[in-house]
């Protein structure tokens, strides 16, 4: 479609001259939890998709992912308790318990406390 | 012809009663919510239940052979693997094939049985799957969904050569106390098909009259007085499906649609007035399609549901009458087995399902099933004393014995509209 030259800029994304988020901007968002370096590796970088970060097929955008979530993800992945999709984590833990598989109690407490993700990572995405 | 005097002289005949308890709680869908889950959950529950059971039986079978998972198999090493069987069938209808080929207006003619000499079995557990070969495990006998333990070794081609197979076997049976006192009869009938062209209202009316004691002399009536319960095992009505073509029904059509159910309700009221009756849904009844079929709704039976002797039950149905445990279905499980495997008679299919400890192994593969997440309700926990299946071609029965001394009476209930045959089971110990 014929457009005037001035409109062409609207077509492509403008690339920032400075790489990513500058220190000045980070100051304003300092009220947020300080992020551990390994999770925030995309900050301050102008590489769009560094290879090392594509661990589950998309860039690591879950930036507030802590050890509790890590423990729960390991629970999701454990084959002994069956497939993780289609059930909430607590329902899967309860099933493991009722089938006599003795899942770790601390995962049960973690899920019942309620401040963690109720579903596995792929829920709704697959 | 009985006169007033003689009947008052002999006294009234009293109907026998039996203590009934329904164990259908596992089949009724109560707290389950469908959250978009797939069938992997029910297969996992089934594999876990059966595997725990098979592991406990292994020491008695082959104690010195190592157990391993499919992924842990080493070539040439003898071991035991436990998993779910999958039968790869060439002729099994596949929805993808139907769409990839040219769609014709008329449906393709389907063979009644989908077996083929090239069918083979594959064993699968959470870690992987492996093709199974050998003469011990016949593909014509097994179907997808059965969990077994296989003893054998991996061959050079990557298949598993089977030397021996172990199934779950008959579960433990609770012993019945030796009979004391009187005979009690239970009537099983199925395939009434009220509303169809093949059903004759006179036949069913004769049956109802006989059961309720309105037929025959004192001797006949005393036989009828021993009947403690009537079980109707599915396909009680045949709704005129030609009317259900997606258009709004006029009042005349609505009346025609509902007529068979009204007629059934009238007959059931006659039965329920005198004797406890259980009605199970079948493949043609107005109930849900997938197993376990939920009980027929009370609103379909306005006059008979007023009686507390009337009971609407799910399919499959598990109940106890005076220490006798009875389990059965309306026929979908056995009919599905007939399509995908081979046997000498229907009773052999029945026996196999009991030995596999699973009422409907082909669910959810080829038989509609609710996607349970935490359990598999078709797993047989305790061995029933009577195991029945409804809507079969003819009446057949056999007594089978288990390894621990279990005794089970297998019954095929024929379609009443075609044969006019109802089955009477006598609840006393066969010594």
TrEMBL record, chain A:
<feature type="compositionally biased region" description="Basic and acidic residues">
    <location>
        <begin position="1"/>
        <end position="10"/>
    </location>
</feature>
<feature type="region of interest" description="Disordered">
    <location>
        <begin position="1"/>
        <end position="47"/>
    </location>
</feature>
<dbReference type="Pfam" id="PF04081">
    <property type="entry name" value="DNA_pol_delta_4"/>
</dbReference>
<protein>
    <submittedName>
        <fullName>Uncharacterized protein LOC113717849</fullName>
    </submittedName>
</protein>
<dbReference type="GO" id="GO:0003887">
    <property type="term" value="F:DNA-directed DNA polymerase activity"/>
</dbReference>
<dbReference type="GO" id="GO:0000731">
    <property type="term" value="P:DNA synthesis involved in DNA repair"/>
</dbReference>
<dbReference type="InterPro" id="IPR007218">
    <property type="entry name" value="DNA_pol_delta_4"/>
</dbReference>
<dbReference type="GO" id="GO:0006261">
    <property type="term" value="P:DNA-templated DNA replication"/>
</dbReference>
<dbReference type="GO" id="GO:0043625">
    <property type="term" value="C:delta DNA polymerase complex"/>
</dbReference>
<feature type="compositionally biased region" description="Low complexity">
    <location>
        <begin position="19"/>
        <end position="40"/>
    </location>
</feature>
Automatic annotation (TrEMBL), chain B:
<dbReference type="InterPro" id="IPR040663">
    <property type="entry name" value="DNA_pol_D_N"/>
</dbReference>
<dbReference type="InterPro" id="IPR007185">
    <property type="entry name" value="DNA_pol_a/d/e_bsu"/>
</dbReference>
<dbReference type="Pfam" id="PF04042">
    <property type="entry name" value="DNA_pol_E_B"/>
</dbReference>
<dbReference type="InterPro" id="IPR041863">
    <property type="entry name" value="PolD2_C"/>
</dbReference>
<feature type="domain" description="DNA polymerase alpha/delta/epsilon subunit B">
    <location>
        <begin position="186"/>
        <end position="395"/>
    </location>
</feature>
<keyword id="KW-0539">Nucleus</keyword>
<keyword id="KW-0235">DNA replication</keyword>
<dbReference type="Pfam" id="PF18018">
    <property type="entry name" value="DNA_pol_D_N"/>
</dbReference>
<protein>
    <submittedName>
        <fullName>DNA polymerase delta small subunit-like isoform X2</fullName>
    </submittedName>
</protein>
<comment type="similarity">
    <text>Belongs to the DNA polymerase delta/II small subunit family.</text>
</comment>
<dbReference type="InterPro" id="IPR024826">
    <property type="entry name" value="DNA_pol_delta/II_ssu"/>
</dbReference>
<feature type="domain" description="DNA polymerase delta subunit OB-fold">
    <location>
        <begin position="38"/>
        <end position="165"/>
    </location>
</feature>
